[in-house]
Amino acid sequence: MSHSPASANIAKSEILERIRNAQKIAFADRDLASDVGIITGEPGTHFDVPRDYERSSNLATEEIISLADERIADYKADVRRCGSAATEINEAVKKAIADVGASLIGIPEGLNREWVAGMGGAVEESAAGDSSVELRVDTGFNAQELDELDAIVTSSAVTCAETGTIFLDGSATSGRRALTLVPDIHICVVPASTVVYGIPEAISRLRETDPTAPITMISGPSATSDIELARVEGVHGPRTLIVIIAG
User: pTM of the full predicted structure?
Assistant: First the structure.
């Protein structure tokens, strides 16, 4: 059953009104929010959300990148550094692929082909590449094709150093969400120019491109804990995450 935006707003208003009435009955007309210094505004009128939280940092660029390195590593990701030149990124990606022993690699359509040049004959620019590695460009892989991949190589949209979170925006360089969730190994190139300090700044960067993009936030390899608190990796996404900070 589908619901229109209008009916959803009516339901939301009714729920909030019932909460307000319950508070009044339980606390003899006391306004609980005002009692603790919370400004709620008037029901049905526009409310300007306070934006007085920290939105930038005074840290130097290298300090921010070093913090991102540290925080991403805290999540048990394999973090590596290289220069910003395409040839340097290419070497870092090659080494990452060799280290995990992957042979069938998926890449999004918009990935810089220089980053994967010489690694497989399936990409036009790499016809004379390493025959032990096959690159496949995602033009709409189905579930079986995604499952066949050993690893994927993508870029990223923005990275928050404070939380060690990498944002993928579903673009031609970050790749479709399915591409980044199904294969077991994710090699993610993070350009140093896209690393910012905090979440507010990261969100602002995303809004500058496409505020409606489907965002996937990655904080380390996929992991969860079962009822006995035993850590299980690879349940909701790649079991292995290699992050290459370029620049």
Answer: 0.76
